[in-house]
Design goal:
CATH class of the largest domain: Mainly Alpha
Number of domains: 2
Number of strands: 0
Shape: globular
Oligomer: single chain
CATH superfamily of the largest domain: Flagellar motor switch protein FliG, alpha-alpha superhelical domain
Number of helices: 8
Strand content: under 5%
Order of helices and strands: HHHHHHHH
Radius of gyration: 16 Å
């Protein structure tokens, strides 16, 4: 799919393709952008950048976004919080009880939008294929 191709190219190529798509079909461009980075992809972001993201995320929003997500995502978020904040987050999630899927997805989309904004501003890095792949 187009999203899979865009995941393999560098940021400049991705931007050129999405801008061209926006000129031709804005609705399709929006769908592609939403599909480019999903909430669960947060596990691919380095810890320093996750900490940067978490500074701007409301705790209530984070709790909602984490409901029903994988244990790996919860662990990734928790290890980037202080022990006290991680414990509070866990308690808040339990206190929240059952929630509507629609509300979880809305919270996740808000956080993904923040991640994309920080990435576009150069404040964090979402690892992709191509020239901006990290070399360890």
């Amino acid at each position: 799919s187009l999203v899979n191709i865009l995941h393999q190219v560098d940021r400049t190529t991705e931007k050129n393709i999405t801008e061209g798509l926006e000129r031709e079909d804005m609705e399709l461009a929006d769908k592609v952008k939403v599909s480019m980075f999903v909430f669960e992809d947060i596990i691919t972001i380095n810890d320093v950048d996750i900490q940067r993201i978490l500074r701007e995320v409301d705790n209530k929003e984070l709790c909602m976004a984490l409901k029903g997500t994988s244990e790996q995502v919860i662990e990734t978020i928790s290890r980037n919080l202080s022990k006290r904040a991680a414990a509070t987050l866990k308690e808040d999630m339990e206190f929240l009880g059952p929630v509507r899927l629609m509300d979880v997805e809305k919270a996740q989309q808000k956080i993904v939008a923040l991640i994309r904004r920080l990435d576009e501003a150069g404040e964090i890095t979402i690892v992709r294929g191509g020239d901006d792949a990290l070399i360890l």
